[in-house]
Amino acid sequence: MAGKDFRAAFSNMNQAVRPGNEQPVVKKQKMSLAKKRATIHGVQTYLSDEDYEQLMLTKIKTKKSCEEILRDALKQYIQAFK
């Protein structure tokens, strides 16, 4: 075993978790729907749960992208208030 360098292993032993010196267990938290949307797509963070569900249903029915659906809805909204 000549030539092996164990210095890295020994230096890491000080950082190792030993019995009685355990790291606190971090509980996995369930993500809220809003947090999930925030990680999925920037636009979706502005929608309520009901609006997001409606957007996903429309996306499935029309096979359009979310951006196209929102753009069309915005155009209709602007036309209604002109």
Protein architecture, described:
- It comes from Segatella copri.
- With 82 residues, this protein is an all-alpha fold.
- Helix content is 54%, strand content 0%.
- The radius of gyration is 26 Å and the shape is elongated.
* Percent helix: 40-55%
The averaged pLDDT comes out at 69
Gyration radius from CA atoms, angstroms: 26 Å
Distance between the termini: 83 Å
Largest sheet: none
The assigned structural class equals mainly alpha
Which percent range describes the beta-strand content? under 5%
Total count of helical runs of at least 4 residues = 4
Organism: Segatella copri
Protein name: Ribbon-helix-helix protein CopG domain-containing protein
Brief overview:
This protein is mostly helical. It has helices at residues 7-13, 33-40, 49-62, 66-80.
Key words describing this protein structure:
single chain, about 80 residues, about 55% helix, about 0% strand
Per-chain topology:
Elements: H1 7-13, H2 33-40, H3 49-62, H4 66-80
